[in-house]
Amino acid sequence: IWYSSIVPWQQLHTPVDCVWHGQKFATVDQRRRASRARFGELVKVTKFDDFVCDIIDVQVIANSKSSECHFETVDAFGKDFATYVRAAMSRQDLDAMLAHREVRVLRKDGGDTLSLGAWDGRLMLSNDGGSHHFAAAAHIARAIGCRVPIRRPLFFYELVDAAWMALVEAHHLLLADEHAVPWTAQHVSRL
Predict the structure, then answer these.
(1) Exposed end of the chain (fewer CB within 10 Å): N or C?
(2) What's the pLDDT score for residue 161?
(3) 54-64 pLDDT, tens digit each
(4) 138 vs 76: CA distance, rounded Å
(5) How far is CA 14 from CA 23, 28, 33, 108, in A?
(6) Sign of the CA dihedral with 38 first, then 39, 43, and 47 last
């Protein structure tokens, strides 16, 4: 199953009937209402329809087939791909990278958006493909000093302090070492 086929948490307001082996579960809306009643909204989302930034402002790419490789920055990812495809640091190759069919962020009909979590502070491209070519375009734009404006919707996420405090006060938090033996319900019940 592809990551992009999973409904992101921020879209859980859409009613969805879940049927598994003939058993129908509560809709997502019903589950969210129950959570909201107890703790309130955990995240506040504000949409800015006409947000403008430059391609080199993007610091995180949400979806990439390069998950087996780690890059510290979008620029490092772009440099790696540009080197692999032997792209020149030129306006011509910048335009070629931006023209790739999966780079949708510059198209008016493209579905890509931008997002920013207040707790993280990095601007993220929420894309559905084209990450290699986008990153290479950002790298080339930075190298040749060419501005590439992006005008897309931006979703700004903020944690709601009061709801998180209520959640933390109502539950026990466990911090386990990543190398620790996995906990079972039986282990937790002994606490």
Answers:
(1) N
(2) 83
(3) 999 999 888 77
(4) 10
(5) 20, 7, 12, 24
(6) positive
**DSSP bridge partners of 47:** 155
Q: How many Å apart are CA 56 and CA 79, to the nearest integer?
A: 13
Rounded (10°) CA dihedral 76, 81, 83, 87: -120
Question: Helices in the chain by DSSP H: which ranges?
Answer: 28-39, 74-84, 91-98, 131-144, 161-170, 185-189
Q: Which residues contact 29 (CB under 8 A, 6 or more apart)?
A: 13, 14, 15, 16
Give DSSP secondary structure letters for 16-39: --EEETTEEEPPHHHHHHHHHHHH
| Residue 186: per-residue pLDDT | 72
**For residue 145, pLDDT beyond 90:** yes
Q: What is the pTM of this model?
A: 0.68
